[in-house]
Write a structure and sequence with these properties.
Blueprint (H helix, E strand, L loop, with lengths): L19 H10 L14 E2 L11 H9 L8 H14 L3 E5 L2 H12 L5 E4 L4 H9 L3 E4 L20 H9 L7 E5 L12 H13 L3 E5 L3 H11 L8 H10 L3 E5 L10 E5 L2 H14 L10 H14 L2 H21 L11 E5 H4 L9 H13 L1 E2 L1 E10 L5 E13 L7 H16 L8 E3 L15 E3 L3
Parallel strand pairs: 1-10, 3-4, 5-6, 6-7
Antiparallel strand pairs: 2-8, 7-8, 9-12, 11-12, 13-14
Bound molecules: pyridoxal-5'-phosphate.
The site of pyridoxal-5'-phosphate has 13 residues, from helix 4.
């Protein structure tokens, strides 16, 4: 399991831990919401892998070569060519970030009452669908709901579920979104054979297939490592094949685009592109920049090219694996298999004495911050299981602390430090029986974890 990063560090950014007393004060001032902390109050920031990665010297050089000209920027054509080379889409629209791309696709294609199936929609995708009058439906394989099973492709769509939804909603499904990797329940990959199967079903039923490609390269890496027939293939070749089964994609470039901002709508059909272009103008900006500066387009284009580098992906994936394995050895309950970009701790199992209504993930996030200045992402997730008519059949509740690893940013020493801090909290877990209460007494599962404020329920 030896690996080595195919790059060296050229510039560093100092980080500080503060004292225990300071961290106590800062988190209280933040109303116990990790999102409210100021970044200079955080030592190791694992809140998100979105826009937090490090860029290469070539990305920075491309930034300097960009021309700011409002329309027809050469940077747009540079990005467009790369999107064609890697994703096989003739048409592309830049957007300010992933949710901008979601809004454009939904506004272009959804009629009120439409049903949009997925493995699991990302939260903003789900909201964008609803905002356009559609209904998001999750069709993920059953094993995904059991966060401890070791099934390898827990991001797959359950093909039978999908067929049922289609048969019961004829004429009401303009497109399906396959989220690769499926980050809502543990950043789990989707197999090539599943992408192929879903694509076949879509074609038979005259439904478009879009990939939410925010973590396309990590998904391709998993296909290479797990699916026997892809072992000898290169990442770019695998990525090309993945996208060949789709009609286009939406993407947040802040993840596998290795960029600090941006999103893309990629399309193969000119008519859809022409319609989508109008929504880009309305919501984002002129279609050759989508509200971004030209330099952003260059940064993203180069980022996508670098994303398919096997050695980079291998080092990243093994760093995430290293954290997962260490926590496993300690006995800390985590989502299995280890996620592509993050390790998710099952906070309900971590703090068995803390009721779900007192937000065990918030408690764990608080302790991790207090003990070591490490910021994770405490999420209270409610997943709706629907039947073919889109009626709710079951609600699954999870309280997870996600530790997202930014790309090319932290060393293995940082990662092992995080594991050590968690070990020390784990040793003291039985002394905790109280968590937090919502300050505003809103719904327990307001999906918007970002804005929640808490009061401590312990001394
Ligand atoms: C799978 C997936 N899709 C879409 C988005 C939304 O992207 P953005 O945050 O750039 O709007 C995210 C963000 O985390 C995501 O993980």
């Amino acid at each position: 399991m030896n690996y080595v990063e195919p790059y060296k560090i050229k510039m560093i950014e100092y980080i500080e831990k503060g004292t225990l007393e300071e961290r106590k004060r800062w988190i209280k001032e933040a109303n116990y919401n990790l999102y409210n902390l100021k970044s200079n109050q955080v030592f190791i920031n694992l809140i998100f892998d979105s826009g937090t990665g490090s860029m290469s010297n070539i990305q920075w050089a491309e930034i300097m070569l960009a021309d700011e000209s409002y329309a027809g920027e050469s940077s747009y054509f540079y990005l467009k060519e790369i999107v064609y080379e890697i994703m096989g889409c003739d048409y592309c629209l830049p957007t300010h970030q992933g949710r901008g791309a979601e809004n454009i696709i939904c506004s272009t294609l959804i009629e009120p009452g439409d049903i949009i199936p997925s493995n699991i929609h990302y939260s903003t995708t789900s909201s964008n669908i609803k905002n356009c009058g559609g209904k998001p439906v999750n069709c993920i394989v059953e094993s995904a709901y059991d966060i401890e099973t070791e099934d390898l492709f827990k991001g797959n769509i359950d093909v039978e579920k999908l067929k049922n939804v289609i048969d019961n909603n004829i004429g009401k499904i303009p497109f399906i979104i396959l989220t690769i990797t499926c980050n809502t329940l543990g950043s789990q990959p989707v197999s090539m054979s599943n992408i192929k199967d879903v694509s076949k079903i879509c074609k038979e039923n005259n439904i478009l297939l879009f990939l939410d490609a925010s973590r396309f390269a990590e998904n391709a890496y998993s296909i290479k490592m797990i699916e026997e027939s892809y072992r000898e293939k290169g990442i770019k070749e695998i990525v090309n094949e993945m996208f060949s089964y789709s009609d286009g994609f939406i993407m947040s470039c802040k993840k596998d685009g290795l960029s600090t901002t941006g999103g893309i709508v990629g399309l193969k059909n000119k008519d859809i592109f022409m319609k989508a272009k109008n929504f880009c103008l309305l919501y984002e900006g002129y279609f050759t920049h989508g509200g971004m500066s030209s330099r952003d387009l260059k940064m993203i284009g180069r980022g996508i090219k670098e994303a398919v580098d096997f050695n980079c992906l291998d080092a990243r994936s093994k760093q995430v694996f290293k954290l997962g394995k260490k926590l496993d050895e300690i006995g800390i309950p985590i989502v299995k298999p280890y996620g592509g970009h993050a390790i998710y701790i099952d906070a309900r199992k971590f703090y068995e004495n803390v009721p779900l209504e007192e937000y065990p993930a918030q408690l764990l996030g608080y302790e991790l911050y207090l003990e070591g200045g490490v910021r994770g992402n405490a999420s209270n997730i409610k997943i709706k299981k629907s039947d073919v008519q889109n009626s709710t059949v079951e609600i699954k509740n999870y309280s997870l602390l996600r530790l997202s690893i930014p790309r090319r940013t932290y060393t293995d020493n940082h990662i092992m430090y995080v594991a050590e801090v968690l070990y020390s909290i784990w040793e003291k877990r039985e002394s905790k029986s109280k968590g937090f209460l919502r300050k505003d007494k809103g719904d327990f599962f307001n999906l918007n974890n970002y804005t929640m404020e808490f009061v401590s329920n312990f001394k």
